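Work Package 3 (structural annotation) set out to generate three-dimensional models for the target panel prioritized at the project kickoff. During this period the team completed the workflow that converts sequence records into discrete structure tokens, so that structures can be stored uniformly alongside our sequence database. As a representative example, we reproduce one entry of 244 residues exactly as it appears in the project archive.
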Amino acid sequence: MTIFLKANWENIIMANYEIDPKILFPFLPKGVELDLYDGKAYVSLVGFMFKKTKLFNVPIPYFGTFEEINLRFYVVRKEGDTVKRGVVFINETIPYPIVAWMANKLYKEHYTVVPTKHEITTERKSKKVQFEWLLSKKWNSIYVEATTEAKVMEKQTLEKFIYEHYYGYTKIDEHNSEEYKLQHPSWLVNQVLDYKIECDFTAMYGDSFSVLNTTKPEAVFIAEGSSVGIEWKRNRLNIGNERH
């Protein structure tokens, strides 16, 4: 299978909020349904480093390393006995217009461009990771202090549910969606010791998500990450009669 994009994703912070499913329905692509954990729907504010980016195995000079901030939620597509767990992005934010333009043009993604920066400090037993993005002349941020000891995610946990989704779904219009596949191993995680989130969800993601301004995350996780591949092939789902 041809790999369109390959990169290292590192220090992947996930701040996870329980949310009313009704808020997500307008963003739900055709052909998938919400993936719930213990009957609850979640959205995640995500920050991570994008490094060593390659398109069709060709390095991108000058623009291959950057921060990404995104808001995503979780879906599932059932095809007979096959269950595909995936994510839908409300918005993905990066600092480089050319990279955003390419993703939006080729794949009808929802990339926007704002200035970003990061600070990562590592000591023997702990690390501090902070991602920041500038919006309306104010810096927003997501910060985690965590152990450096890496461990395997435990089964049947919210942490594993959040990280273990290997498909992406994009809403093209009311009747069409696209499905693509991500390739990466199950990530190792670090124990979060402390966190701080300063995000204007309304300004960043619209009035639909303003409730998150006054909502405390149910959990905050950080994974070490790995090399990630995104397959070139995208399946167009045209399911006019299918219901969510």
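The longest helix spans residues 97-107.
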